[in-house]
Amino acid sequence: MGSIITEAFAIERIPPISDEKVLVVAGGKSPSDAWLKTISRQFDVWVADKGIQCCRNIDVVPVAIVGDGDSSSLEDWDWAAERGAKIYRYPKDKDYTDLQLTLMQIGNIYRSPSVFVTAGLGGRLDHTLSNVFSLIWAQRWGVDTLGFIGEDESFILLKDKERLTVHFDEKPFALSLLSLTPRSDGVSLKGVKWELEDVSLKLEEPFAVSNELRKEERDVYLSIKSGCVGVYICLSEKRLKKAGF
């Protein structure tokens, strides 16, 4: 059984997470330097354009940089290239986003990669939605996409016939399930106040939101028979209040 450990929670999955673990640093809301430095030790780090700024801040040289360079400086790219990072540079007028191109290249380079993205949420809504659905798309390119991780919020993918165990060091503020396919069947959720047992979730009926762990519980168990569900984890009530919810 593979696992990923963050400062706030740990994730175990069946089938196991691959030993070829990759973290893509994208161009959304950036994590703190300390958090990224710690989490990056578990992964091969790749960068989608603007993410190179985060890596340079903490002196972590990525395996590769992918993108058109429109949201990062040539100096940052040169810094990484001089230290051995591979460069995949594309023209600004292109068919795919920087994140999509990064996932494609990862699929070409690795045999069976399991990929998390950080700095992939926040900012423009169209960018955020594109990033979410790009992770589903990337499965066609041979990439096992795990979801988005961050300091304050994460969005983990639960896909066909998978089982997840999430152990929290501290009780999160909220946990929500959202179907990312028209229909997700056989969804079960245990360890929370409002449990689910072999239910169907639909894209157009997002009712399974704002759940919470039982008082003394720190482990959440999830499973699915078919489809794809996004498991949203909000670690901080303070973050929600800042966002106006």
Could you list some keywords that capture this structure?
245 residues, alpha/beta, Rossmann fold, Jelly Rolls, 2 domains, 9-stranded mixed β-sheet, 6-stranded antiparallel β-sheet, 6 helices, 22% helix, thiamine binding
| Protein structure class | alpha/beta
- Rounded radius of gyration (Å): 18 Å
Order of helices and strands: EEEHEHEHEHEHEEEEEEEEH
State the end-to-end CA separation.
36 Å
Tally of separate domains = 2
Ranges where pLDDT stays below 50 over 5 or more residues in a row are none
CATH class of the largest domain: Alpha Beta
Principal-axes shape call: globular
How many strands appear in the DSSP assignment? 15
Number of helices: 6
GO biological process, one term: thiamine diphosphate biosynthetic process
InterPro entries: Thi_PPkinase, Thiamin_PyroPKinase_B1-bd, TPK, TPK_B1-bd_sf, TPK_catalytic, TPK_catalytic_sf
EC number: 2.7.6.2
Keywords: ATP-binding, Kinase, Nucleotide-binding, Transferase
What can you tell me about this protein's structure?
This protein has 245 residues and is α/β, with parallel strands linked by helices. It folds into 2 domains: 18-151, Rossmann fold, CATH 3.40.50; 152-245, Jelly Rolls. Helix content is 22%, strand content 34%. The chain has helices at 33-39, 51-57, 74-82, 98-109, 125-137, 237-243, and strands at residues 2-5, 9-14, 21-25, 44-48, 64-67, 86-89, 114-118, 144-148, 153-159, 163-168, 174-179, 183-190, 196-202, 219-223, 228-234. A hairpin with a 5-residue loop joins strand 12 (183-190) and strand 13. The termini are far apart. The model has no long low-confidence stretch (mean pLDDT 94). Residues 162-229 form the Thiamin pyrophosphokinase thiamin-binding domain. It holds the Pfam family TPK_catalytic.
